[in-house]
């Protein structure tokens, strides 16, 4: 179990990835994202997760620069967008993202969605970037078991990470078990179901018992399940609070109660239907 915000999990290639990070989906480029990332780094976060489609890579890069933290202490993730899928276009998209972030290399580069029929070509491009030392780890996002099986049939390098929508309303148990067998680390986006769970009675009861917030209980549940998690916030107090999850432990009974909340309910798109 991670003991603090800087604790890491070893990906299957030996690269250490922090268990806990900041997501910046829907955070506006410019001062809003710069502040959000700087608050997080000041609070001890080492991992920042962005994507081309969030249109805030420049602000993230600016915040990294202004934070004064050594580059090798940080873990930076971005993603190739659907419209850029394909071999050459992915290589190009990577360079653009790197430039916007103002970095020499990335820690993790992900295929954002499987899309329709190009992810194998896209993956070949990620393998090249990895072999060329431009990115320390490569992975996918929103891949279901059938996408992974299809990808693995031809892949030279197995994805190190699969970042998916995952929270107590969508526990993704089968996918988690499959990825565990394959040595692919699961990472949760939208771990708080975009706020839909914060008033849940079961979670409130568990939170009261531990003297914590419902958000903290959910994020602790992620960690105890071996899931890397990246909650998003733009408020400094909330960013600090979200990470205050290392001083308590959920009991087996708490964990079971949270697991039982699953409804296979998505707050984001279904990866089998998002084809653009």
UniProtKB/TrEMBL annotation:
UniProt xrefs under PROSITE patterns? ALDOKETO_REDUCTASE_2, ALDOKETO_REDUCTASE_3
What is a single Pfam family found in this protein's UniProt entry?
Answer: Aldo_ket_red
Q: Gene3D superfamilies per the record?
A: NADP-dependent oxidoreductase domain (3.20.20.100)
InterPro entries for the chain: AKR (IPR020471), AKR5G (IPR044500), Aldo/ket_reductase_CS (IPR018170), NAD(P)_OxRdtase_dom_sf (IPR036812), NADP_OxRdtase_dom (IPR023210)
Keywords attached to this entry: NADP, Oxidoreductase
Give all residue intervals belonging to the NADP-dependent oxidoreductase domain: 30-262
Can you tell me which family this protein belongs to?
Belongs to the aldo/keto reductase family.
This chain belongs to which protein, by name?
A: Aldo/keto reductase
């Amino acid at each position: 179990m991670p003991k603090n915000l800087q604790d890491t999990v070893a990906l299957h290639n030996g690269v250490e990835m922090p268990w806990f990070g900041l997501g910046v989906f829907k955070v506006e480029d410019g001062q809003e994202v710069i502040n959000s990332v700087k608050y997080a780094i000041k609070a001890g976060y080492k991992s920042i997760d962005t994507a081309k489609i969030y249109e805030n890579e420049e602000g993230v890069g600016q915040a990294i620069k202004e934070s004064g933290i050594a580059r090798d202490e940080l873990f930076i993730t971005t993603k190739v967008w659907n419209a850029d899928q394909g071999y050459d276009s992915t290589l190009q998209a990577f360079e653009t993202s790197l430039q916007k972030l103002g970095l020499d290399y990335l820690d993790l580069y992900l295929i954002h969605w499987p899309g329709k029929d190009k992810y194998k070509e896209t993956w070949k491009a990620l393998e090249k970037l990895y072999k060329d030392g431009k990115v320390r780890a490569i992975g996918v996002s929103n891949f279901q078991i059938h996408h992974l099986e299809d990808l693995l049939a031809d892949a030279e390098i197995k994805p190190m990470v699969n970042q998916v929508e995952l929270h107590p309303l969508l526990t993704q148990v089968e996918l988690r078990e499959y990825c565990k067998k394959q040595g692919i680390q699961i990472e949760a986006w939208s771990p708080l179901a975009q706020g839909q769970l914060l008033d849940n009675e079961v979670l409130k009861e568990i939170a009261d018992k531990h003297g914590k917030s419902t958000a903290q209980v959910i994020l602790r549940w992620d960690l105890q399940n071996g899931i890397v998690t990246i909650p998003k916030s733009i408020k400094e107090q909330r960013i600090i609070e979200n990470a205050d999850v290392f001083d308590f432990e959920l009991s087996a009974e708490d964990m079971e109660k949270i697991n039982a909340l699953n409804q296979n309910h998505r707050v984001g798109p279904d990866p089998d239907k998002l084809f653009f």
